[in-house]
Design brief:
Strand order of the largest sheet: 1-2
Radius of gyration: 35 Å
Protein name: Cbb3-type cytochrome c oxidase subunit
InterPro entries: CcoP_N (IPR032858), CcoP_N_sf (IPR038414), Cyt_c-like_dom (IPR009056), Cyt_c-like_dom_sf (IPR036909), Cyt_C_IC (IPR008168), Cyt_c_oxidase_cbb3_su3 (IPR004678), Cytochrome_c_Oxidase_Subunit (IPR050597)
Pfam families: Cytochrom_C, Cytochrome_CBB3, FixP_N
Subcellular location: Cell inner membrane
Strand content: under 5%
Mean pLDDT: 92
Largest sheet: 2 strands, antiparallel
Number of strands: 4
Helix content: 40-55%
Distance between the termini: 89 Å
Family: Belongs to the CcoP / FixP family.
């Protein structure tokens, strides 16, 4: 094929390449593209001169402008730490009540506490603190070991059933599995507990079973949960009459709990978080509960 062949439609020369009867035109690169390439190369050359660019063994070209991003970040971090220092000092030295009463400090607590909670607590308790399956809701103001920022801080410090020497310890025995109660008694006491928050459960047909369950409850469960099933924050025993549940309050779940027992766990945070961080986090969790009151 003649490489000087001219396309009759466009009037342009062809390159001499042909595929299945389709001929390629010898079209020049558009001027706009050439201008763009020239400008970008000139910009790159100028950037090399102005900014840190080329490595030179143990150093690098500093650039005419002397810009140092690492130094700028270090300066920004130093300024941020200086700004935080006054807030953290106030949190460290002031009492919980004083901090709660100071709205400007609480704004800092909410901002910093949200980050601490997201990094350390949200995996179990959810990003909004409302809990997950088998993990308690921290916003309902219903506490096993007592509410208030100071009590929450202590729980954070020592954990629950954790390795800390001062950890809070609480365990629900496996009454059925360990044969402390037989199957009938397990069902009866579950029915009684269920009736405390579900009045419709109490019917003339099962009144006898509920009364039998109460007797089992008084002899077996009241030592921890109280005769009125109101629980004991000194022992970490939950209130069974308020319809707030960690594991669930339906009949089947109650039977499972009474039969197999429960032993929750919360890690101790005093080796991972500083005292100020624990205090901030406790104030933040307490604030979540206050918002729902």
């Amino acid at each position: 094929m003649d490489v000087e062949e001219v396309d009759p439609v466009s009037g342009r020369k062809t390159t001499g390449h042909e595929w299945n009867g389709i001929k390629e035109l010898d079209t020049p690169v558009p001027r706009g593209v050439l201008i763009f390439l020239v400008v970008t190369h000139l910009f790159a050359l100028l950037w090399w001169i102005l900014m840190p660019t080329w490595p030179l063994g143990t150093t690098y070209t500093k650039g005419v402008l002397g810009t140092d991003q690492r130094q700028r970040i270090e300066e920004d971090l130093a300024q941020s730490q200086t700004a935080r220092a006054q807030w953290t000092a106030a949190i460290e030295t002031r009492s919980y009540d004083e901090i709660i009463a100071d709205e400007s400090l609480m704004e800092f607590v909410r901002a910093s506490g949200r980050q601490l909670f997201g990094d350390n607590c949200a995996a179990c308790h959810g990003t909004d603190g409302t809990g997950r399956f088998n993990y308690p809701d921290l916003t309902d103001d219903d506490w096993l070991w007592g509410g208030g920022a100071e009590n929450i801080a202590e729980t954070l410090r020592v954990g629950i059933n954790a390795a800390h020497d001062e950890t809070r310890v609480a365990e629900m025995p496996a009454f059925g599995r360990d044969q402390m109660l037989d199957r009938t008694e397990v069902r009866q006491v579950a029915l009684y507990v269920h009736s405390l928050t579900n009045p419709e459960t109490s019917t003339p047909q099962n009144a006898t079973e509920i009364q039998a369950g109460r007797e089992v409850f008084l002899s077996t469960c009241a030592a921890c949960h109280g005769e009125d099933a109101g629980g004991s924050q000194d022992m970490g025993a939950p209130n069974l009459a308020d319809d707030y549940w960690v594991y669930g309050g339906d009949m089947q779940t109650l039977i499972t709990t009474i039969h197999g027992g429960r032993r929750g766990h919360m890690p101790t945070w005093d080796e991972r978080l500083t005292e100020v961080e624990i205090k901030t986090l406790a104030l933040y969790v307490n604030d979540l509960a206050l918002e729902k009151r």
